[in-house]
Amino acid sequence: MLEGGTAIDTWVALGIVGVLTLYLVLRLIIWSNMVRSQRQASKEQAGGMGASAQAPSGQWPGARREEMDISWGQIGRRVVSGLGVQRGELIAVRDNVGRLDVLLEVLIEIELRGATPLVQHVPPGYMERFLQQVPPDILAEWDRHRAAWAKQQDRVLVLTSAERGFDEVPRARLRIWQEAVARLTELEDQPPRPYLLVAIPSAARAAQLDMSEAELEAILLPAVAASTKELQGEIDRVLALASSGGDMVLHSRKGHMLRLQQGDRTWLSDDGYIDRADIERGANASNLPAGSIYTTVIEGETEGSLWLPRAAGARDVVFTFGEGRVERIEAASGEAALRDLFDRHSGEPRRVSHIGVGLNPYLHEPIGWTLVDEHVHGYVFIAFGENRYMGGKNASSLNVDFALPGATLLVNGRTVVSKGAIAGST
Fold first, then answer.
1. What pairing do the DSSP bridges indicate for beta strands 5-6 and 398-404?
2. Exposure of 357 by Cβ count < 10 A (0-12 exposed, 13-18 middle, 19+ buried)?
3. Does pTM top 0.70 for this prediction?
């Protein structure tokens, strides 16, 4: 469910110096824009915003929203609503994107709901510089005061976009910082806080995907804005196909087959809204764009092989499993970097964390961004590493997802996905 390569990414945005100064500046800007935001919200409600945000009837799956004008104000309300923000709460807002226009809309909406945002703003390139320049003894104390923040916060919102590169960071420095991050993550998970990860288009991410920022926005905004009502209908239909508690077989391309055991684990779903029922059954983490079902698996019983078109920069990848772990990695290119991804993490990074199916009606083709691609309607996704936050038993500093095109998934012999299409879809 979480994207970005590691559990570290949940704490990346805590690194910037001067957070409180920035927060005060943002508060001044927020209040100067408050009246404008309230007027816009009233206008949208009076003019039927709900109708403009809904897919035209008869277009499921494969709904379109290109002709609709989606504002960042609407996205801000969708994000804060999805996190379930309540009056009086402290909301950690970790901005890894650097788009002030987007951040302001989110902060205004949090304030309007009577909650307090704790802003941690880290523009692209900051953490790379931080890890290269800060002395190791200071890195080791990185969590000293941040631990108090982790204990106080009620919910966590992360805005993410361009991929971060830690290739130039010395391994010893990275390891010291990872240990501090692991301590913070343990605090954040006791008890687990509602956590929402949001894909935000940016110029940097668009460049990585070889498209314009406008093109990326046109693809992403309709998928992020999809309402819970739109998503839940398809989620319910596919959950009825995926009976729990049995044998799962995943066929990927080039003749590879992976067998997984669900055991007593249950299917969870992500409709982009974290409510009390979600939290009680262990689904405290959500994404936007949303629209998926997923389950953890019995960690030590995965056997067979899996093909992926790409994984962490590697291409044409084959994982071979034994006793629940990836025992062999083969790739046409990028094999060394992929091995390093697993080797530099603690715990059991080579075990499958969870497996799921994307169900967003506004996503039809992959774009090369896993957080988006794993929600493409009919795409199967598979994750490695940490899964205790969703009811599993695998501990690791790694938490990474990969999306599979054209896969077939059978649960207890029943077809849920056939060559990239949901069973029964037209």
1. antiparallel
2. buried
3. yes
Q: Per-residue pLDDT tens for 276-289?
A: 888 888 788 899 99
- Give the torsion sign (CA, 217, 158, 54, 85): negative
Buried b (16+ CB within 10 A) or exposed e, 196-232: bbbbbbbebbbeebebebeebbebbbbbbbbbbebbb
pLDDT in tens, 23-47: 444 554 444 444 344 444 443 333 3
- Tens of pLDDT, residues 48-88: 333 333 333 334 344 444 456 899 999 999 999 999 999 99
Tokens of residue 195, six digits? 């956590």
List, in order of start, the domains of the chain with CATH numbers. 5-225 (3.40.1830.10), 228-422 (no CATH)
Give per-residue pLDDT as tens, 367-424.
999 999 999 999 999 999 999 888 899 999 899 999 999 999 999 999 999 999 999 8
335, 319 Cβ separation under 8 angstroms: no
CA distances for 115 relative to 88, 111, 196, 406, angstroms = 5, 5, 16, 43
Cα 18 to chain centroid, rounded: 27
End-to-end distance of the chain based on CA atoms, in angstroms?
27
